[in-house]
Amino acid sequence: MQGVITRRLAGLGVAAGLAATVVGGSVAVFAAGGPGEHLRPIDGAELLVELTQAQDSVLWVSMAGPVSTVRSLGWPVDDGVHELGGALVIERPADPSAGVVDIDEPPMSVQFTLGD
To answer: Model confidence over 98-116: pLDDT tens digits?
Structure first.
């Protein structure tokens, strides 16, 4: 059980680290504390992007300019041999001001990069 907790905390650290390494433009990161939990804004992300989460999708509206990239990370899953994890990257969304990210399960994190 402790291994699961370590992986969850490491995942949140990865999401926060991704936000810190992006140069140019603003980044809004939302992360969940555990599988099945709702995403929560990190460091004022709610001021940049409004997020509504359903069971298998995330509706977002940018309040601070066009979104250039949306990244979603899933929770790691261990199949007994390999540790697997899902990810989705949307570059240049069709509508940079709002959209829907369809996912199969509640994600570990969603990151929005704003700017051109």
So the answer is: 999 888 778 899 999 999 7
Q: In sequence order, what DSSP letters do the residues of 77-97 get, joined into one string?
A: EE-SS-EE--EEEEES-SSTT
- Tokens 């994890």 map to which residue? 85
Residues 25 and 115 sit within 8 Å (Cβ to Cβ):
yes
Strand ranges inside 11-66, DSSP E: 26-31, 40-42, 49-53, 57-62
Each residue of 30-67: pLDDT tens digit? 999 998 899 999 999 999 999 999 888 899 999 999 99
Cβ-based burial of 107 (10 A; exposed 0-12, middle 13-18, buried ≥19):
buried
